[in-house]
Amino acid sequence: MRHDHLITSKQLSRGDIETVLDRAAEIDADPSAVADRHANTLLGLLFFEPSTRTKMSFETAMKRLGGDVVDMGSVESSSVKKGETLADTVRVIEGYTDALVLRHPKQGAATMASEFVDVPLLNAGDGAGHHPTQTMLDLYTIRENAGLDDLTIGIMGDLKYGRTVHSLAHALTNFETQQHFISPESLQLPREVVYDLHQRQDGTGIKEHESLEGVLPSLDVLYVTRIQRERFPDENEYQKVAGEYQIDAETLEAASDDLTVMHPLPRVDEIAPEIDDTDYAAYFDQAHNGVPVRMALLDLLLSDDRGIRGETDE
Amino acid sequence: MRHDHLITSKQLSRGDIETVLDRAAEIDADPSAVADRHANTLLGLLFFEPSTRTKMSFETAMKRLGGDVVDMGSVESSSVKKGETLADTVRVIEGYTDALVLRHPKQGAATMASEFVDVPLLNAGDGAGHHPTQTMLDLYTIRENAGLDDLTIGIMGDLKYGRTVHSLAHALTNFETQQHFISPESLQLPREVVYDLHQRQDGTGIKEHESLEGVLPSLDVLYVTRIQRERFPDENEYQKVAGEYQIDAETLEAASDDLTVMHPLPRVDEIAPEIDDTDYAAYFDQAHNGVPVRMALLDLLLSDDRGIRGETDE
Amino acid sequence: MRHDHLITSKQLSRGDIETVLDRAAEIDADPSAVADRHANTLLGLLFFEPSTRTKMSFETAMKRLGGDVVDMGSVESSSVKKGETLADTVRVIEGYTDALVLRHPKQGAATMASEFVDVPLLNAGDGAGHHPTQTMLDLYTIRENAGLDDLTIGIMGDLKYGRTVHSLAHALTNFETQQHFISPESLQLPREVVYDLHQRQDGTGIKEHESLEGVLPSLDVLYVTRIQRERFPDENEYQKVAGEYQIDAETLEAASDDLTVMHPLPRVDEIAPEIDDTDYAAYFDQAHNGVPVRMALLDLLLSDDRGIRGETDE
Fold first, then answer.
1. If pLDDT is split at 50, 70 and 90, which confidence band does B162 have?
2. Which of A85, C214, C293, C306 is most buried, by CB atoms within 10 Å?
């Protein structure tokens, strides 16, 4: 399989994923080796929804490869306001740049846009759809800390609305992992996601829980996500639920010494600051890994021998 | 004539225009030859009105020449809010950068600003005034597709409010062109523009029409512009007018096979998407031509032998 | 003393200040010598409050050193909106970049943030707190025009709310200066600032006035600041006060021919445009000096032998 665009992590086989993570590890080990590799290359940033972190790390990644970016800016100041279609916008901007990064509120936007352009297009989030570069940096962080095979991972918090979680869970089915999903009943994984995961992996690999307590000691990785206040009509209900899914030093007394705690950030109260300086905490490294991982993706898609091509494609 | 600033396409003689278009063609043919030509050069972007396309293509142009930009950002976040005059703003920012691009809602702003600065200033639109870099990329596209002499061009749509159209029509009087203006009566060219064009060119070169039908077969180029809904108090009136000035495959059955269809973009319904992949369509190329044309203008204004100087100045 | 961050000009001894100003003068004399000195270096811009001038000149400075910037953009589009703490934001972004510039509405923000990061952090204004790079460019301008010792300086306008003025006054106590503070009674220096200055310098060095008239002839430098309309509940009161503290050609008839007039800009009516082209006016140079001074600060903080280290530290 060869991929000229990066639309969803679902498009990637285990071989493709390993190609990307290996390239990211190489770059991480010696960034200076690629500091001028894509000089004179321009990356177009098309963010139809606000994003700081994803945008900044894509911008950093392109600049660390010797290239530069051209940013469309906010939708308020763009031609979109004048009724232009997304197809027209991307066709104009691809004429300026050598690759495009697109974030858009509508699911499927990246797929549609990729059909109109010849330059590589990277999906930086399409509504409730996909956010594959986040998944790749999560996988990279897991591999660095605990390995991707023989992994026991707990994924906790808002599992209903988090596209990050759905993509990660799906990608992990490419590896030999035991996934535990921990959430209040009202924020469980959507049934169709559970069904999809079962199709990909035999059922023993996936378990759902309402409490962290029983499962914590067995975990190699605990991936915590934010529970958003606005999901709850009642403040008391929110406080009760949110409080149960918070991690502090006391919680982690029951964990393995080798546990790795991850979080896609920003966090609010889900992880107490007292964890930040412990060996458990990998969430800032995880955020920083966005740079080498996005450098690897850009490098693969922009090189003469273009595309993401895993050596062990299925 | 030597021009240190680019304020209006009216300042440019036929010789000046050809100098710019020739340089753009050279750059277009081999952009890598100029990829580092203006390294260490900074272009200041002063956009007092929103613009995505013009700003992005100026930014792309400067970066494709090896330089970089410094962007003032939106007026909301600038010192203008604190009551600073435009003269003060440009005098401060010229101290940071090697050239300035200015877009401003007030007609005459670019002329005024240019009197306060020593670095080259390029007008990127001053209200109802001028937008010379748009005109230059239009001329470039026409020359590439149909040539600028012995040209028969139709300019259609909102001819009353479009500064793009007025500048283009004026610039075309430097060449041997037959211009047909096609619009509903309510959106005709302003009488003073018609008068001005007649002064520049003998009357046989300019004709006005309310319908495309009679004139279409004779056209080498059809330049379509957007009719803005907000110009019409009545939605029905808008629908009726707008519908008559839309182009689709059926419309073009009466056209020459060599017809070139242009549009400054963004479009709404003026040109049906079914035209996009035909040989008629030049509007995406036209948008892309903004880069080599702006590179040429920046290169001429930033080189040691500064200024736009046509060889056949009148 | 060695400084890895730049939080306040109060942290800097006379030796530190001279180290910075000397480096700025070197850079100013031959900017091309450092044009590639910090290639592959990325500066993170974190502006939690709007700023055009400070941000643009930091961006210019980093680019003139061969590096580039990554801008967080406005708070509206950032993770701060999602409740992220400043400590988390800076820890994420320091992983992308080699140094950080922070502007924040809360006094003390820069100090707090610097405790969480390993890369150099430069304070670009923390509420009513400090703005040390402005002070350094003011000192640089004074030194270029009048010298920093045996200096008689008048500082006029809104002395109550202007952090620029407080920082400058404090920094000048490192040198042999006579400072005259000229303002309406309602906008006098806060008593604690006066007290602080007296502690630093013997009392003869500091005098307060309600009128410029008596003191003008003795001045080497007159530093004018803006009196903000919104400080006054009554428009008449504002007009009366503001009018008395405006400078025009007639005012300056009583001044020394060598007088240097400065202003941090933007100005409104404080200095008549007729002064702009006289030898008195140094305010545009002052704004432009932001570039070499910020280049010097970045260079000192980013070089292998990191930090600001004055040779004559006390």
1. confident
2. C293
**C60 touches B: beta carbon within 8 Å:** yes
**Tell me: the pLDDT tens digits for C39-83?**
999 999 999 988 888 999 999 999 999 999 999 988 776 666 677
Write out the H or E segment, with its range, that includes residue C141.
Answer: helix C132-145
User: Which residues of B form the catalytic set?
Assistant: 53-54, 82, 103, 131
Q: How many CB atoms lie within 10 A of CB B214?
A: 12
- Structural domains of chain C in order of their starting residue, each with its CATH number: 9-130+289-302 (3.40.50.1370), 133-287 (3.40.50.1370)
Contacts of C265 in chain B (CB under 8 A): 79, 84, 88, 92
CA distance B69 to chain C (A): 9
Q: Does the complex come out with an ipTM higher than 0.85?
A: yes
Q: For this structure, is A152 an active site residue?
A: no
Tally of CA atoms within 13 A in the half-sphere of C1 that contains its CB:
17
Segment-wise mean pLDDT, segments of 10 residues, chain A, 314 residues: 86 94 98 96 94 94 98 76 88 97 95 96 91 97 96 95 88 94 93 91 83 97 90 80 89 97 93 97 98 98 85 54
Annotated binding site of A for carbamoyl phosphate: 53-54, 103, 131, 134, 265-266
* Cβ contact B82:C53 at 8 Å: no
Residues of chain A with Cβ-Cβ distance to C92 below 8 Å are 53, 265, 284, 287-288
Residues of B in contact with C56 (CB under 8 A): 44, 70-72, 93, 96
CA distance A168 to C133: 45
Nearest-CA distance B112 → chain A (Å):
25
